[in-house]
Amino acid sequence: MSPSNRVLPSRRWRICRYDRKRIDKLCAIARTDAEVDVPTTLRALLAAPSFHLRLLAGADDSSAVLDEPLLWAHNSDLLDPTPWLQPGGLLLTDGMHLSADSDPSEVDAYVARLVESGTRALGFATGIIHDEVPEVLRAACGGLGMPLLEVADRTPFMSIIRHVSDVLAAEQRERLEWSLDAQRAIARAALRPDGLGAILTELEQRLDCWVALFDSIGNRIDVRTRIAMPTEAEAIVDDAVRAALARGNRSSARVIVGTEAVTVQTVGQRGRIRGALAVGTAAPLDAAGSDLVASVIALASIALEQSRTVETARRQLRSGLLELLLAGVIDVAGRTAQRLGGRLPEAPVRVAVLGAAVEGQSLLDELDLLAGEDAGRVFVAERDVEVVAVVGADDGGVLERVLARHGMPVGFSAPIDWDELPRGLTEARQAAARTRSDQPVVRFERLADEGMFGLLRASGAETIARRLLAPLLALPAAEREMYVRTATVWLAHNGSWDPPSKELGVHRQTLRNRITALEALLDLDLGTFPARTELWSALHLLFPTP
Length: 546
Known about the structure:
This protein is α/β, with parallel strands linked by helices. It contains 20 helices and 14 strands.
């Protein structure tokens, strides 16, 4: 491996590339005449002539452990040093607690504790207390897979310890320099005309990763980057992003996709989450990488906040356009819409009114995106507490799909021309009033098919009917049903007496008495046509006949 291709991981094993100049600097900082590769590994130490190391057991030249970075080196002759050890290091010992006559079970337990603690290897000095490494230790290390190194020719432990610590310190300084340089590059990128795309591209280059930016409802924002998200990661990342956004506060999550670690972080402040950033890397981010992502998150928050400010202004302009359209100033509204980067749908159009109050920003955000992406097909504006949309007569489906995802009912007007917009708004409101959980989409044509009573119901006439018939509704069920049946049959026969008497199976005088009693109960003069019409309408609204 050439020096320019060597890698230097941090303590959390984050891999980054270094050029030859930086490698030379690191080697110069290490105060030893041993020429070893960086980062420090068992293989590198074994290859250094000045350390006089020899691999005896627990691994061979092809073992991967020889290439794992060493995170520390220290010496101890304690029988159990593991309470003071961290994983990933080289333990050095003179073997004061060992001899050729040591109990194999005790030696096995000693090595097993080192293995369990995550110690990378054991170095045993010869020529000081022991002329050679005890066979019982060789057997224990070989059986438990603990690399055992002989430290010969009275090599000072301190030279090995100092070398490992110096290289680690140099790596930390180099990583800090890398972090500062990357932060400056990100700041410079933010000043470019395409600032948002520039900082994401810079992040890709610095971390050798792919990035994806999502809006507040989980849709991908089209920002030019160098590396595309892997296809197999899209569904998993989409789910992770939507889950993070659903929490509504600042959060971070990590998912594993194949061999990649994907970090998902929300963008924005609690209660004002503007989106999410996904970063896919070959290894988990270390502290420097996480700090760099945090900087990008902050800059992206600013960019998306500015975008939200612009979108709020556009909403207000669209509300103004709607007022112009309702006032009949169609030409001016059309030209203004084109200057805003869109156009109005071609007539005939339908007016749509949402059938419930909008809670939160996610639906409004998605409608804003829809109005922008489908300009010429969908126009959306807020009017007081209403959300009004205008779509092409045959393009209602695109709006319905968005509303269905949010469980939002909607009423549509019949197809109209733009100069009929006030009538269309009235029809859409009437249709929205008839929506139910099992009928979330209602078109005005359906109400027209139901005749005048369909329109009366849509306008809330049932409330008036209940008020008119309140004394009747308060009667016991059997008596109420008798009066409803009597009045319905009598009115169906235009107020005559003999045909309804026969149909009801009662004497005509009995029928007269019932109608007289109903007049008194409801305070109506049923001898007049208006009173009969009012009673007929109220009965039909509350007690419709098949």
